[in-house]
Automatic annotation (TrEMBL):
It comes from the Bacteria. CDD domains: M35_peptidyl-Lys_like. SMART domains: Aspzincin_M35. Residues 1-17 form the signal peptide. One of its GO terms (molecular function) is metal ion binding. One of its GO terms (biological process) is proteolysis. This is Lysine-specific metallo-endopeptidase domain-containing protein. Residues 48-194 form the Lysine-specific metallo-endopeptidase domain. The keyword Nucleotide-binding does not apply. The keyword Hydrolase applies. Its cofactor is Zn(2+). Belongs to the peptidase M35 family. Keywords: Hydrolase, Metal-binding, Metalloprotease, Protease, Signal, Zinc.
């Protein structure tokens, strides 16, 4: 049973002034996991933004490369990074049956309810960055930090992404084999950003 905690915690993000995040229905350990994921997600989004180019990683998640598509992806990552750096995020830790959570869902948002993210129980069973190798089966659905990027990208004032495909296997097949352009797919942003974490020098 969740202990109801309604708290505003100050978190220092990089060199900027502290951003306050609001937590509802979250236990202490859940709050700590989310704060870790938020901090990692901000770093991931920035690294992803500066890593956009005509690379195998780009084509794996976003499909055929073009300068315009790449510019759109770069701008989206910059918006995601800015939001994670600067805004107050409201996090609701929901039980199954609450906030549209079910057994298969990790998190959800309403794109017009800016910066409010509902986290389902499955979210807390996802791995943190670097818990497993990038190619392990445990990474098939991504990480907690990657899920934060996924959900943040949905907001209409951030990147206004959609859910075109889910899972690494399905989305990479769609981009590489079907050659679909997936610059509006939330999971593509998640998986590209996560892959950037496994390149040298990420902390």
């Amino acid at each position: 049973m969740f202990v109801r905690i309604f708290a505003v915690l100050a978190v220092s993000l990089m060199a900027h002034a502290a951003a306050a995040h609001e937590f509802e229905r979250c236990e202490k350990a859940e709050i700590e996991s989310v704060l870790e994921a938020l901090t990692a997600a901000e770093k991931l989004a920035l690294r992803a933004a500066v890593s956009i180019g005509d690379t195998p990683e780009y084509r794996r998640w976003f499909g055929p490369y073009s300068k315009q598509n790449a510019a759109d992806v770069r701008a989206a990552f910059k918006s995601i990074h800015t939001a994670l750096r600067d805004v107050e995020v409201k996090v609701v830790c929901a039980n199954i049956g609450e906030e549209d959570c079910d057994e298969s869902m990790y998190a959800n948002v309403w794109r017009h309810e800016h910066y409010a993210i509902n986290l389902c129980p499955s979210f807390f069973r996802m791995p943190p960055i670097h818990a497993y190798s990038a190619t392990s089966r445990e990474m098939e659905n991504g990480t907690r930090a990657g899920t934060i990027i996924h959900e943040m990208s949905h907001f209409d004032i951030v990147a206004s992404t959609d859910d075109i495909c889910y899972t690494r296997t399905t989305c990479s097949q769609m981009a590489l084999q079907s050659r679909r352009v997936l610059t509006r797919n939330a999971d593509s942003y998640q998986y590209f950003a996560e892959d950037m974490a496994y390149l040298p020098a990420f902390e």
